[in-house]
Amino acid sequence: MEILSRDKDEEQTPNQPAQQKSNNAARTSVFVGVLLIILGGLWMMTNLDVLPARVFDVVFSWQMLIIVLGLYLVVVKNYWIGGSLMAVGTLFLLTDYFHIHIPVVEVFLPAVVIAMGVGLILSRGK
C-alpha cells in the first residue's frame, strides 16, 4: 500500500526542467508571433508609402537582426548575452544609419565594464 501512495505523490510533483522548457517555448512562440506581426505591418506600410523606404532599410538590416536576437535571448532569460548583443547592434545601427558618432573607446567600453561590475554585484546573491 505504501508503495502505491508514494508513486502517487511522485506523479503529482511537477517536473521542473520540463515546465521550464514549456515556459521558454511559450515565450518563444509569443515573441516570434509579435515579431512577425510588427515586421509584416512595417513592410506593408512601406509598400503602401505610409512609411519611407529608409524605415524598411533600417528594420531589415543586419544590425536590427543582432538587436532582435539579443531581445530574444533576454526574453528567454539569458540577460548577459542578450543585452550585449542588443548593445552592439544598437551601436552599429546608430553609427551606420543615423550617422551618430559614438566614441567607443571613451564611452562604450567603460560603460561595458561598469555594466559587468553591476551584473556581478547583482548576481552575487543567486
In helices, the fraction of residues equals: over 70%
β-strand number: 0
- Along the chain, the helix and strand elements come as HHHHHH
Query: What is the radius of gyration computed over CA atoms, rounded to a whole number of angstroms?
Result: 22 Å
Q: Report the major sheet.
A: none
Low-confidence segments, given as residue ranges, are: none
Task: Give the number of domains.
Answer: 2
Continuous helix count: 6
Shape: flat
Structure class:
mainly alpha
Distance between the termini: 41 Å
Explain this structure.
- With 126 residues, the chain is mostly helical.
- The protein is 80% helix and 0% strand.
- The protein starts with a helix and ends with a helix.
